[in-house]
Amino acid sequence: MFGNYLIGLREGLEASLVVCILIAYLVKTGNRSRLVPVWTGVAIAVALSLVFGALLQFGSSTLTFQAQEILGGTLSVLSVGLVTWMVFWMRRTARHLKSELQGKLDAALALGTGALVITSFFAVGREGLETSLFIWTAVQASGDGVRPLVGALLGLATSVVLGWLFYKGTLRINLAKFFRWTGAMLVLVAAGVLAYGIHDLQEGDLLPGLRSLAFDISGAIPPDSWYGTLLKGVFNFKPDPTVLQVIVWLLYLVPVMALFLAPERTRTVTRPRGSVGRPSTE
Question: What is the pLDDT, as a whole number, of residue 79?
Fold first, then answer.
């Protein structure tokens, strides 16, 4: 449940910040009358995300067991790829998100109403589709359709409240640090989803090694115990993983976490010797 809360919080906060920046910029520049197209784009993006989630849920229920496992495993791997790209993208652009969105909005204002709808739709739709896909894979991994959904909804509700407080100016936090540490947690959650997806592909006979267990600690951590349920709900922990699951988990988590937590390089500008004392043209 915590993992899904984190997904809903982070993705929802990204969308909330985007909407707040768009609305605040329109109000500040005297374009309050252009708010309707922005809200229209947001509504379309939310509706599309809900439809996408429903299609994943009801469409997969009509497939055979093997097809369901292959679909679930494939989408799990895809969702991990999307989340990994998302956390690195936000780590790189968190400081410049406001100016980037305002530049796109200026261009959309010049083009007209349709461009405003498209701009807000794409700004929010990406997070919505990623959220639907990742939550669906988390529900499949946990085997419980209630708690993951409740966790995600609570995370989204929290993000809406935080977005409103940001807009009102009553809440100020270091967004770069916030997205950095929540991103690190998401990398850990994504590693568990990836391992689960590999197990699905093994059950669908797409990958070998289903019977080759790396270890089995079910006696020490029973899957139906409260701590076993907690570990599974947060990290998709499995007390009897296959060898391939453990290998893929390590191959993903160690390098991705190291790259994500590594300090960002700052660009230094060197000036030629002959330019000392000359006026700069920049």
Answer: 81
DSSP H stretches of helix in the chain:
2-28, 35-60, 65-93, 97-111, 113-142, 147-168, 175-203, 226-235, 243-261
Supply φ then ψ for residue 242, to 5 degrees: -80, 165
**How many other C-beta atoms can be found within 10 angstroms of the C-beta atom of residue 143?**
9
Residue with tokens 């690195």: 88
The token pair at 225 is: 């115990």
Average pLDDT of the segment spanning 195-206? 89
The Cα 282–Cα 276 span in angstroms is 14
What are the structure tokens assigned to 30, written together?
Answer: 């005297």
Phi, psi of 213 (to 5 degrees): -85, 140
Identity at 2, one-letter amino acid code: F
Q: Which residues pair with 242 in a beta bridge?
A: 213
pLDDT tens digit string along 34-45?
A: 788 888 888 898
Q: Read off the pLDDT of each residue in 241-266 and give the average, rounded to a whole number.
A: 88
How far out from the chain centre does Cα 244 lie? Answer: 25
Q: Is the dihedral of CA 15, 20, 21, 25 positive or negative?
A: positive
* Token reading at 96: 């410049």
Beta bridge partners of 213: 242
Q: Which two tokens stand for residue 185?
A: 């947690």
pTM of the model: 0.68
The span from the first CA to the last CA of the chain, in angstroms, equals 52
- Within the chain, what is the greatest distance between any pair of CA atoms? 75
